Amino acid sequence: MRPVSAEGVRAEQAVSAPCAATSSEPVRPPHPEASPWRPRLHGSVEVITGSMFSGKTEELIRRLKRALYARQKVQAFKPRVDVRYDATRIVSHQALAVDAVAVATSQSLEARVEDGTQVVAIDEAQFFDRGIVDVCERLANRGIRVIAAGLDQDYLGRPFPPMPELMAIAEEVTKVHAVCTVCGAPASRSQRLIAETSTVLVGGAEAYEARCRICFVPRDDQRTVHEGDDDPTLVERRPLPAE
Ligand SMILES: [Zn+2]
């Protein structure tokens, strides 16, 4: 049997109780940026996700308002899924306002992030190409706080790319819930109510409703993905024009 040294015993104890401090360990000084009163100096990725009507955009706006109150430089972006959305004011409160710039690609989004920007908000992130994941990573590595909101599932309850990858690289993921229109439970699915007949569906509540897992009935006969979260107009995802 191999003799066990005192160091070995201490090492085993440290593994079994990682939080227990031993007197032989040097005490680390607090990190110079650890104070909660200092502004955030490190970049990060936050994802706000859930079904339609779950309040993702409201949560995004709430966080943006706080950043604006803190006098941080904020830029907001939306995917260009329709010409009507070229410029949308997504935050407006007294003197606080930020315009969401509609961009066709993740590459275009990255190119429009200005020097000195501290917070980048991305609404309807599920409509971006997969490159948005790398863009968010690069922005966070530059020290920017990235907040992305988007649907986690499509109308069949399938993971909605690129949201799963975005959630994987994020420091923080917040799932928000709607209320199931059938039973009143917290809802995590977007139920499509009408058959697909045109490329653009105008209307929100009559075309989709929030459902819980039990009440959700995926309709596999409908292949077109729509989005109408927090907006009266539902727009089909189509190939985006080059900028
Ligand atoms: Zn239900």
Please write out the topology:
Layout (H helix, E strand, L loop, with lengths): L5 H11 L27 E7 L5 H14 L4 E6 L7 E7 L2 E8 L2 H7 L6 E4 L8 H11 L3 E7 L11 H7 L2 E4 L2 E2 L6 E2 L1 E4 L7 E3 L5 E4 L14 E2 L5 E4 L7
Parallel strand pairs: 1-6, 1-7, 2-4, 2-5, 5-6
Antiparallel strand pairs: 3-4, 8-9, 10-12, 11-14, 13-14
Helix pairs in contact: 3-4, 4-5
The protein binds zinc ion (ZN).
Short structural summary:
With 243 residues, the protein is an alpha/beta fold. The protein contains 5 helices and 14 strands.
Provide an overview of this structure.
The protein has 243 residues and is α/β, with parallel strands linked by helices. The protein is built from 5 helices and 14 strands. It has helices at residues 6-16, 56-69, 106-112, 131-141, 163-169, and strands at 44-50, 74-79, 87-93, 96-103, 119-122, 145-151, 172-175, 178-179, 186-187, 189-192, 200-202, 208-211, 226-227, 233-236. Strands 3-4-2-5-6-1-7 form a 7-stranded mixed beta sheet, with helices on both faces. Strand 3 (87-93) and strand 4 form a beta hairpin.
List the domain count as a whole number.
1
How would the global form be characterised?
globular
CATH architecture: 3-Layer(aba) Sandwich
Which class do the helix and strand fractions yield? alpha/beta
Number of helical segments?
Answer: 5
Give the biggest beta sheet.
7 strands, mixed
What is the helix/strand order? HEHEEEHEHEHEEEEEEEE
